[in-house]
Queue: 3 jobs
Job 1
Amino acid sequence: MNNTLGLTYPTRSGAKAKLWVAGMLSIALLNGCAVNSRVTEPDLVAEKLDSYVVADGDIRHEVINEDVARLWQESEILQRSGDIETAKSRLEQAIQITPRDAVLWSRAAELELDQNSHLRAENYAAKSNFLATVDNTGLRYRNWLIIQLSRKGRGDLLGAREAELETTKLIKP
């Protein structure tokens, strides 16, 4: 059965506010539904995906494989409840099913960045950029922001500046 399920992951505030901006830019490029940020019980994953729709402002992505959709949703719920390691594990399982999904790699990069795993975050974002289509500007912009923050977190200020220049290229007409 080829149902198209949409999933979304919310953006961050504070130090990662630039990622939120990237999410806003990506809305026009990516379609789907979202996981409600108030849901914290992993048991609720079995409920209908449609019950987790939230407002605009999130990165949207079409997911065809129901197992990937379920794993993504579990990852989001676990992340919100503070179980980051299990959340990352669920996302890695989704990536094993669809290893060429650029959005999954980007989300994995953001989770790594949230845990200050800067090198891994940069590598995942670079992989996402490699897999992203040329016309997926919003996702590539988001990935370059993750790379910029990762490099800055490692003290690579020159590399962070180079990443910032890449983001500038993507937002100019």
Job 2
Amino acid sequence: MIDHVSIAVHDLAAAARFYEAVLATLGHKKLADRAATIGFGKKYPEFWLNERRNMTPVDPDSGAHVCLRARDVETVQAFHAAALKAGGTSDGAPGPRSGQIGGYYAAFIRDPEGNRIEAATFAAAT
């Protein structure tokens, strides 16, 4: 249903370094690199960074977030760890999420600009 998503970033070069490390855990790599946008994906760009030099920091209560599918629980954990190592912050440690469809396991991070990104998988037993 959804072909791709994009997020706005103030510093495209810094965001690219962050996302190269974090998205590698999900099997994504940089596939497009243009003057004001960079696209990551497996076969085609699915996750875009768009430079917005005049943007203000993301409001923590904005409610917007992007969820990326992970292969398994270990990948969700690696995503979270890579984000913290690269300068992001935790917005929900890896773990099962009660009240969700069976086996939903996820982690939430904030990138250095405040964007909320989630990695999730469905695990038979968490």
Job 3
Amino acid sequence: MKVINLLIIVVVVLLSIAAGLAKVMQTPQEMEFLQGLGLNPVLIIVFGLVQIVGGVLLLPNRTRMPGAILVTLALVVSTVLIFIGGDLRFGLFSLIPIALASVIIYQTARATHKSLNTDASDVGST
């Protein structure tokens, strides 16, 4: 199970960083699509940086929860924009990374909860 969780994290990190880099590097397709929806170049770059930061924050255990939340929010915004742009198929496909990021949030919360319960029981035994 740990291998599957690690694989999910790696996939979401790569997706988030790749999507962010496409925005920061102002790739023509990305710029055309997002500017067509009313986003200006500065906002697109900021959005890309948020995606990159979220992906990087997913890597260490310590920052995994804020990273997962940031990545999930960015993925939701991207998916909404895709639906607004009228691409139903790609919009539906874009729900998969949101589900994967949600699994990371769930697993991280569960691990944190277990850790807190273990720490609480250790305090009483000393």
